[in-house]
């Protein structure tokens, strides 16, 4: 399921997994998709609750397959991770996202940060930082306008390698955020070990706001902790005005979700770049 795929971890430590014929076909399809450029990106805006401004967008990959139709990333990203194809696919996504942001800058739109999801498998690559640098160089995008979203599972990796990679990325001015915060890892010690900028609260904690007293307590605690650690905090999956009001009232820094905007194609994003929050 989607939830299992989220932390990118359950797939590896569970019992032997049976691979369906659809999965085998899709994995074959991914090779072709890469060659034939069947991937495109949609972008979901993220708003700063203090200024009300659109602070950034998150790039979300879409696979439009002639054979299988629209395949959800929740389905094909885990397959790409298992086969290692996520490395070239992820690089292509990074490049497309940076190129798009560069085009928006050149067209004179107010600058926004482009957030790109980075899989644990990509993060493990020794040449990751070189590739990121290369993409920034070739697209001419300042590191300040790039954000990398990694999941908590990264924190379970070799500490020194993680710290070195994150420091190298930070040295380029790139923002680092923890995606799906609260779902992936049992220890919080990584929060003080690594140079991080943003916690993205998983949408499972946002869904039942403000009615669930457990979830309001958890979300308030995450926001308070983020502030004391000098981290910014972004709530994902905001679908209602009530949720938005709660988050604003409790000092959440940024929000993202269908209530503000669904992920959209680049041309649609252009019409709202630089707008302020609809409240
Ligand atoms: P994610 O990184 O947590 O991305 C957010 C997902 O939640 C997106 O689903 C987005 O469309 C959806 N979403 C946003 N706002 C709302 C809301 O208000 N309500 C609900 N119910 N959903 C909302 P999407 O695009 O299907 O992506 C699913 C997952 O696939 C992503 O979760 C991410 O883990 C992975 N993914 C997507 N694009 C990429 C990519 O380029 N690279 C990698 N490595 N993973 C990606
Ligand atoms: Ca899998
Ligand atoms: Ca994400
Ligand atoms: Ca997320």
Automatic annotation (TrEMBL):
Coiled coil: none annotated. It comes from the Bacteria. Residues 23-277 form the EAL domain. This is PAS domain S-box-containing protein/diguanylate cyclase (GGDEF)-like protein. It comes from Paenibacillus methanolicus. The chain holds residues 656 to 934 of 940 of the full protein.
């Amino acid at each position: 399921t989607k939830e299992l795929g989220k932390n990118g971890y359950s797939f590896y430590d569970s019992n032997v997994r049976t691979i369906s014929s659809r999965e085998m076909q899709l994995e074959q399809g991914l090779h072709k998709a890469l060659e034939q450029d069947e991937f495109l990106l949609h972008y979901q805006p993220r708003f700063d609750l203090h200024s009300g401004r659109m602070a950034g967008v998150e790039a979300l990959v879409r696979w439009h397959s002639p054979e299988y139709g629209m395949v959800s990333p929740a389905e094909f990203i885990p397959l790409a991770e298992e086969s290692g194809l996520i490395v070239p696919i992820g690089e292509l996504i990074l490049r497309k996202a940076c190129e798009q942001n560069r085009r928006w800058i050149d067209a004179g739109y107010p600058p926004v940060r482009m957030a790109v999801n980075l899989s644990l498998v990509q993060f493990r690559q020794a040449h990751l930082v070189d590739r990121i640098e290369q993409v920034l160089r070739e697209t001419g995008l300042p590191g300040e306008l790039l954000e990398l979203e990694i999941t908590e599972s990264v924190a379970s990796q070799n500490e020194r390698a993680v710290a070195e990679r994150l420091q190298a990325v930070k040295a380029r001015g790139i923002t680092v955020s923890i995606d799906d915060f609260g779902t992936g890892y049992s220890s919080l010690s990584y929060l003080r070990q690594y140079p991080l900028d943003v916690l993205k609260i998983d949408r499972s904690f946002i869904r039942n706001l403000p009615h669930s007293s457990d979830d309001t307590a958890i979300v308030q605690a995450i926001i308070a902790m983020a502030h004391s650690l000098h981290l910014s905090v972004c709530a994902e999956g905001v679908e209602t005005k009530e949720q938005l009001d709660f988050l604003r009232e409790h000092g959440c820094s940024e929000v993202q979700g269908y209530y503000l905007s669904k992920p959209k194609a680049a041309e649609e994003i252009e019409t709202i770049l630089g707008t302020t929050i609809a409240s």
